[in-house]
Write a structure and sequence with these properties.
single chain, zinc, Neutral endopeptidase, domain 2, alpha/beta, 2 domains, Nep4, hydrolase, 25 helices, 577 residues, metal ion binding, Peptidase_M13_dom_2, Collagenase (Catalytic Domain), three-stranded mixed sheet
Amino acid sequence: MDLVQLEFDTELTLGKSIENIGYTPLHDTYKKFGRFPMIDPDWNETAFDTIDLMVALRLYNNKHLINSYVSADYKNSSNNILQLRQQDFGLPSREYYLKDQYATELEAYRQYIVDIATFFNSSKVDAETDAADLIKFETYLANVSQSKAETRDPAANYMKYTVSELYTNISSEFEWLRYLNGFFQVVNYTFTNDTELVVHSTEYLIKMTEKVLSTPKRVLANYIIWRFTMNRVSNLPKSIQEIEAKFDKIVYGVQSKPARWKKCVDYTNGFMGMAVGRLFVAKHFPEEAKSMALDMISGIRKAFTGLLNTVPWLNDKTREVAKEKEEAIVEKIGYPEWIMNNTRLNEEYKGLLGNIADDKYFANTVASLRYLCNYELKYILEPVKREFGASPPTVNAYYSGTFNQIVFPAGILQPPFWGRDRPISLNYGAIGMVIGHEISHGFDDRGRLFDKDGNLVKWWDDEVMNGVNTQSENIADNGGIKQSYQAFLHYQKKHGQGEVLPGLEEYTPNHLFFIAFAQQWCVNYRPQALKVAVEEGVHSPSMYRVRGPLANFEEFSKVYKCKSGSSMNPVKKCAVW
């Protein structure tokens, strides 16, 4: 707990005085990478090595050019394995580089690069030239990468190779062994030509390595270090953050930066989420909340089984296997028990102990990044642990296909999603729908590809889907509201109709169920943020997450007496579950 306090205090107190600290820590870090040619005339092209730089940045948890990570093998979910994917980009998605409708955002990105370079005393001419080369290189990578839709099919993209086969099937000139062993040495793991790994972006890696081998060293160095710099601007003085703010306003619609204390909370939770969770749970998550959540989940799971038994498009064979999968779903609620054990919690963060100082803000950030890198890489030495994969304060929930588990952190079991002392109809309408949503993910267009043990196995007859190709989040939204409502009706049969809200007596508990459902998705989008949500988000914009499921749900139309053929009660309704 002392380390959590030190991490937070350092962020808060030194964050306020980073104007005095200046940019020396950043420039010292650049020197470890061989210098940043865009701003440093002493950069030495002869001494530059692409793989050395990729490895150096990977050790700071920066995954540029290649997104490499260790997690459960899709086809053997009890085994951890290295996995390689295409990188993410400086802009929200590949489309921002390729479509004319994002020309404004692409120009803002180019100007951002120029402004940062000239801030560090690069000449305007050199900065413009370097930025143009950098944008051209990244646009090429965007062009050879897959769209978000193309990455959705794990079966189509999964390829297991040995390292030797990387040389044969992707690039014979890229030094794969040197690259992989360069950063895995920190956990004392050595790759050989016979070591297996999984590649999800084969065509991208072929084109990317080909491009890297033919691109001038200055461009490569500028690009890789620029991506690191872009990620670290928020840890630098206000004057350079003002440059970032101009970029964020154009691309994301951000009007102002969050208060420093909020940034400090996010920072500390990001690096020490389980330790922060210990404090959060002690104050905001009593044991009775967990038992109440488990009772609600039990009812909603029974409702989903009822849907499995009645939907007409499932054949009997697939229906039975689907029921087996539902019965095998593991529930993780609130927090992992081990965070209450001081010895175990200290063991979790021993990689940070001794590396966090109360007078070295930027160095603490870099040390934390190295800790996260080492923490993830060490999984390759261990069997898969079906862990609680989110910090307890997280206001979100998720379903894991490879673990076949649903996770509801303590952070989402709070108002407005859930409350101990409010009408039960509000809980079923809000968190109940989220629970049903996550269960449905186990059987959507992606979840149906994984069996009850979390393996990528074909168990679902193709013909039963009858051409349905709906996005998984929309399937889950439509299924989630139905499951939760059915569970709520069952609750009413056992316990009565439920309470109404004082002053709103005209709304029955059934009305309140749908009001609570809609309220949780109240969002006021700025136009730029809406563009990002449409292009990059896995969920539909919030207003459609309300209108779509409700318009497709007959029970909603009955409760609110919607006229047949109206927008909220169309004659033709879409239903998977």
